[in-house]
Design a protein that fits this description.
This protein is mainly beta and about 120 residues long. The strands form two sheets. Strands 2, 4, 5, 6, 9, 10 and 11 form a seven-stranded mixed sheet that branches. A four-stranded antiparallel sheet has the order 1-3-8-7, with no helix packed on it. The chain has no helices and eleven strands. Strand 9 and strand 10 form a beta hairpin.
């Protein structure tokens, strides 16, 4: 059974940094693109960033320069660092995995971790 488990969310103040983690079990992330999405209250799910199986990265224009996505294949984990957090970053953050052969289809999703940024 494949599981993606996010952690690292919580209540922070605007300007704080935080690092979200996503640990996979039941699959080896080395062959997967690992992505981060978020869903803010009353909004659609939003793509944030992904780290490709080969190590390259893609970011949504809205978060470039403030979010950093990374992976550690040895730990079967992916990470999302948020710098200079803002109240509009308040959302549930999800990680997802897409195989390298079907990079636009996210087959596996985590349950999400809540991030709340107070002003």
């Amino acid at each position: 059974q494949v599981r993606l488990v996010e952690s690292g969310g919580g209540l922070v103040q605007a300007g704080d940094s935080l690092r979200l983690s996503c640990v996979a079990s039941g699959l080896t992330i080395g062959s997967y693109n690992m992505a981060w999405f978020r869903r803010a209250p009353g909004k659609e799910r939003e793509f944030l960033a992904r780290v490709l199986w080969g190590g390259g990265t893609d970011y949504a224009d809205s978060v470039k320069g403030r979010l950093t996505v990374s992976r550690d294949n040895a730990k079967n984990s992916a990470f999302l660092q948020i710098l200079n957090s803002k109240p509009e970053d308040t959302a549930i953050y999800y990680c997802a995995a897409a195989s390298r052969w079907y990079p636009e289809t996210y087959d596996y999703w985590g349950q999400g971790t809540q991030v709340t940024v107070s002003s």
